[in-house]
């Protein structure tokens, strides 16, 4: 098995009496897009800063691209494309001047590469940074993260300020990076973009992972609303007894219920009757995300 692109063990970061991370175990495989989800204050940005050696851990271990960021930080950062959640740069430069300067720090980036990314994002490279809107400054940040074809992209809230069309173009860039063998570690509040781009999702709360799963697996285990239309009336009690089925109601020949997890038992029970139609409201990642948080809260209260 190849070494992970990102690996942390029992990672702890404290700020005085406050804890940013409480023992984070994280593993990101080479060539995957890993969505890192959590609300403000959950530890996402703290994790990213530790990976880049912008801050130091209180305890625990970190390895990125096979090396210790603390010992090999300068060499490591040349192999990484980083977009901070609060991308701030010198406003007196034009976008081209800034990107050329940053490219030279990495040993040089072809002008055609910068121009190509700018065209895709509809970015005017001749304008000064201070005259750009928040969305256009974010485009500059995206270009500087991708332009040198890094082995690892670390993106903190990358589509902040981008309009919906450009969000889709950004996701295309992410998929192209993955198809080219790059690894993408992407923190986000925008559930739809993670749902479209990520291979796996890690959900963080209070500095620790609540769960890690493939997006398809999260959907499979999620709660959905189901509506089944039969040719003849059915007995609701038969369906209410099925695993994962609750809130069953039957009106005429229509059954409605709540399904938590796999649909196998429900589908097999419905197949014993003549089914005219079936509707299943697929949950989006946001519903899944808050569902996990609700379960965590219930577990804490029960404890």
TrEMBL record:
Residues 6-231 form the ABC transporter domain. The keyword rRNA-binding does not apply. Its main location: membrane. It is found in: Cell membrane. It comes from Micromonospora nigra. The keyword Aminoacyl-tRNA synthetase does not apply. It is a peripheral membrane protein. Keywords: Antibiotic resistance, ATP-binding, Nucleotide-binding, Transport. It holds the Pfam family ABC_tran. It comes from the Bacteria. GO terms for biological process: response to antibiotic. Belongs to the ABC transporter superfamily. GO terms for molecular function: ATP binding; ATP hydrolysis activity. This is ABC-2 type transport system ATP-binding protein. The lineage of its organism: Bacteria, Bacillati, Actinomycetota, Actinomycetes, Micromonosporales. One of its GO terms (cellular component) is plasma membrane.
């Amino acid at each position: 098995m190849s070494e992970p692109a990102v690996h942390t063990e029992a990672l702890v970061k404290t700020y005085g009496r406050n804890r940013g991370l409480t023992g984070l175990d994280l593993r990101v495989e080479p060539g995957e897009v890993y969505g890192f989800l959590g609300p403000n204050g959950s530890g996402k940005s703290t994790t990213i800063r530790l990976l880049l050696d912008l801050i130091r851990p209180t305890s625990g271990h970190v390895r990125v691209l096979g090396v210790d960021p603390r010992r090999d930080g300068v060499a490591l950062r040349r192999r990484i494309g980083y977009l901070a959640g609060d991308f701030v740069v010198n406003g007196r430069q034009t976008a081209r001047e800034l990107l050329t300067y940053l490219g030279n720090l990495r040993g040089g980036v072809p002008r055609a590469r910068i121009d190509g990314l700018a065209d895709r994002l509809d970015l005017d490279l001749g304008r000064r940074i201070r005259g750009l809107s928040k969305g256009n400054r974010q485009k500059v940040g995206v270009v500087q993260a991708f332009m040198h074809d890094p082995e690892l992209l670390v993106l903190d809230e990358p589509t902040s300020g981008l309009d919906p069309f450009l969000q889709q173009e950004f996701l295309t860039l992410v998929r192209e990076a993955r198809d080219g063998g790059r690894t993408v570690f992407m923190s986000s509040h925008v559930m739809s973009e993670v749902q479209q781009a990520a291979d796996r999702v890690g959900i963080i709360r209070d500095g620790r992972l609540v769960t890690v799963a493939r997006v398809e697996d999260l959907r499979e285990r999620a709660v959905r609303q189901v509506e089944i239309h039969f040719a003849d009336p059915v007995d609701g009690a038969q369906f209410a007894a099925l695993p994962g089925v609750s809130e069953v109601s039957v009106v005429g020949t229509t059954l409605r219920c709540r399904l938590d997890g796999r649909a196998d038992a429900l589908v097999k029970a419905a197949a014993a009757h003549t089914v005219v139609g079936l509707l299943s409201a697929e949950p989006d990642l946001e519903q899944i995300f808050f569902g996990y948080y609700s379960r965590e809260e219930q577990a804490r209260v029960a404890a």
